[in-house]
């Protein structure tokens, strides 16, 4: 079921927030919860074609540790949702969900701690599908747009529901198992939490601060852009001050939530069924992405397996590393091209 609340004003845009509750939700692990709550935000209104099918719904999926609210930040929303912009909120119905384990959706820190079901990306996508179809009564998507983990979710969506969308725009990921350096930094982060004596198997009374500080440092490196960081931190003192500030941000993290968020990628592997994705795909990575380094050559190889796929590698000295996915000024022209190509 869906429980909506009154519309709120985000900067420049009218946003409606609500909660959808999925009952007796079955996880891939075999675990079950009587209720799984998915929080969401929407902009705009649904329009339907002559057959009654939704024609303007856009699903935007966030990354690990994020939530739908991040897409209301100026570098994203002000470039995309305004009048005449690619995802003009007066023309599109934009859906911004918080994934399982994230934001205001059901998560370990709500009370179950380490007894929360061990969700994975397939579980997260299954819940998103329920939110869209049963909660918001949307039977078709104009576009699925995903960043980082949301990018990976896009590939899962494309294989699980290949006829449900007109187009896909995955940003900042690869459609292969998490391995190499990408797995290493994740494993280091998880080990830092699990091996901290203060974690106490997930039943800590106070957050394991040393573990979370280490995890925060790993997240900073994973999301960093070398050229931009050198420009913004040109001296030793500036760099040291930045590290101190980042360490303080660890106080906003919850150890169980973070552990589950990172571990959810453990069995991700859409490479086995990429040929199932037949809709147009505009797939974009950036050349300064620590998590998905272009030197691997994986994207150029895998895009050939997509029936209607285009891969773009952004190469700009002003990009923001892995986080370029939320700075729309660098890539919104490609989004516009995709929308024009798939217009009906």
Describe the structure in your own words:
- By secondary structure, the protein is an alpha/beta fold.
- The chain has two domains: 2-176 and 277-341, Rossmann fold; 180-263, Rna Polymerase Sigma Factor, Chain: A (Orthogonal Bundle), CATH 1.10.1740.110.
- The protein has ten helices and nine strands.
- A nine-stranded mixed β-sheet has the order 1-2-3-5-4-6-7-8-9, with helices on both faces.
- Helix 4 packs antiparallel against helix 5 and helix 4 packs antiparallel against helix 8.
- The two termini are 32 Å apart.
- Mean pLDDT is 94; it is low at 1-10.
Secondary-structure class: alpha/beta
As laid out across the biggest beta sheet, the strand order is: 1-2-3-5-4-6-7-8-9
What is the first-to-last residue Cα distance?
Answer: 32 Å
Rg from alpha-carbon coordinates: 20 Å
Tell me the major beta sheet. Answer: 9 strands, mixed
Approximate shape: globular
Portion in strands: 15-25%
Helix content: 25-40%
């Amino acid at each position: 079921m869906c429980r909506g609340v009154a519309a709120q004003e985000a900067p420049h845009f009218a946003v409606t927030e609500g909660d959808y509750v999925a009952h007796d939700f079955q996880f891939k692990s075999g675990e079950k919860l009587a209720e799984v709550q998915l929080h969401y935000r929407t902009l705009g209104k649904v329009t339907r074609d002559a057959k009654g099918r939704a024609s303007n719904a856009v699903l935007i999926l966030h990354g690990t540790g994020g939530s739908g609210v991040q897409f209301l930040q100026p570098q994203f929303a002000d470039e995309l949702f305004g009048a005449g912009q690619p995802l003009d909120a007066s023309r599109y119905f934009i859906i911004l969900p918080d994934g399982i384990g994230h934001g205001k959706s059901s998560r370990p820190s709500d009370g179950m701690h380490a007894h929360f079901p061990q969700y994975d990306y397939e579980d997260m996508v299954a819940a998103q599908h329920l939110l869209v179809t049963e909660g918001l009564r949307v039977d078709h998507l104009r576009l699925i747009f995903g960043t980082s983990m949301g990018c990976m979710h896009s590939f899962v969506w494309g294989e699980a529901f290949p006829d449900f969308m007109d187009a896909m725009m995955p940003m900042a990921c690869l459609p292969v198992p998490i391995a190499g350096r990408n797995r290493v930094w994740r494993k280091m982060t998880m080990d830092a939490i699990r091996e901290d004596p203060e974690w106490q198997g997930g039943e800590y009374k106070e957050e394991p601060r040393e573990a979370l500080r280490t995890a925060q440092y790993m997240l900073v490196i994973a999301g960093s852009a070398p050229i931009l960081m050198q420009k913004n931190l040109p001296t030793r003192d500036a760099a040291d001050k930045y590290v101190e500030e980042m360490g303080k941000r660890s106080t906003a993290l919850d150890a169980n939530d973070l552990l589950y968020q990172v571990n959810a990628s453990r069995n991700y592997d859409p490479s086995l069924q990429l040929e199932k994705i037949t809709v147009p795909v505009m797939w974009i990575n950036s050349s300064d992405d620590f998590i998905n380094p272009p030197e691997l050559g994986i994207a150029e190889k895998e895009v050939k397996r997509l029936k209607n796929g285009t891969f773009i590698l952004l190469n700009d000295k002003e990009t923001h590393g892995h986080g370029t996915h939320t700075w729309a000024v660098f890539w919104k022209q490609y989004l516009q091209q995709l929308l024009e190509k798939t217009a009906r």
